[in-house]
Design brief:
The structure holds two protein chains of two kinds.
Chain A: E1 5-7, E2 10-13, E3 19-24, E4 31-37, E5 43-50, E6 53-57, E7 65-68, E8 75-79, E9 88-95, E10 104-105, E11 109-113
Parallel strand pairs in A: 2-11
Antiparallel strand pairs in A: 1-3, 3-8, 4-5, 4-9, 5-6, 7-8, 9-10, 9-11
Chain B: E1 9-13, E2 18-23, E3 32-38, E4 45-50, E5 55-56, E6 61-64, E7 70-75, E8 84-91, E9 107-112
Parallel strand pairs in B: 1-9
Antiparallel strand pairs in B: 2-7, 3-4, 3-8, 5-6, 6-7, 8-9
Classes of the chains: A mainly beta, B mainly beta.
Amino acid sequence: EPEVTQTPSHQVTQMGQEVILRCVPISNHLYFYWYRQILGQKVEFLVSFYNNEISEKSEIFDDQFSVERPDGSNFTLKIRSTKLEDSAMYFCASKMGGLTDTQYFGPGTRLTVL
Amino acid sequence: DAKTTQPNSMESNEEEPVHLPCNHSTISGTDYIHWYRQLPSQGPEYVIHGLTSNVNNRMASLAIAEDRKSSTLILHRATLRDAAVYYCILRDPRGNQGGKLIFGQGTELSVKP
């Protein structure tokens, strides 16, 4: 069964450093998402991406964040200058599109900012 | 997307049925009811969804009240692997073209052997 994959599983970085989290969505999916979950808190929407552009973003997704689909398979989340409060699990998700609403989530990347 | 209310936690015994309730009194006519779950240390996982009629799949059943103001996710025989946080989420596929999911706190289900 196809699945969303994410790398790395755990990323440790120093405050102020740039990080890139990588995702490979399911191959025939058209909509892509990033969510995050701070330890012990709710899963929060960050950004949705369709047709090579951001279709919606939350207020968390400020100028420090960017997303890219550099080729036909990868979907990346970049945090330019990490802060301590960026420490969280980051989940990538994808869905086929149209009225099919089911999103498929990856296993997540645990980001620890020191 | 309309708001849902779920109990914070529930307990079940292994191999017994579990009924997880969700209230959504402000649901609109075009909102689908989706259930996702999140196993410990994993990403959310789709469970089931429906609009008006009850739905069954290999994981669970979804019973939707006639007025659609509430629904119940039914796990017919809970296993230890079903211990997770279960989220009830309303989505109108026609609106919100970005398609984001808005997660609440969900119900943390624990399963006792």
